[in-house]
Predict the structure.
Amino acid sequence: MRRRTLILTDSQRAELTALRDHDRRPYLRERAAALLRIAAGESPHAVARHGILKPRAPDTLYDWLDRYAAQGVAGLIQLPRGHRGFSPSPGRRTRDDRAPNT
């Protein structure tokens, strides 16, 4: 099996460096740092096990590589998770249904 690498342009490297150093989202800083280490010549497996904030499964880093290759930085950003929202039980009044305080 051949070793996965990442070749970055100067602008891509600058973009990942800025994310790693300044983004408010810790998960995105971690992903950018991992990709920069892979671009510097480290194997994704080694980076996954020892090169980032906490050990990750190597498949996780390969997923990050695939998404970055396909979508750029947008592929590294987590999509919002859905939630059920508020659904009152039948017959239960919501705050809006209650009589106003006088």
Remarks:
- Residues 10-76 form one domain.
- Helices lie at 10-22, 26-39, 44-51, 58-71.
- The chain is about 50% helix and 0% strand.
- Residues 88 and 94 are 7 Å apart (CA to CA).
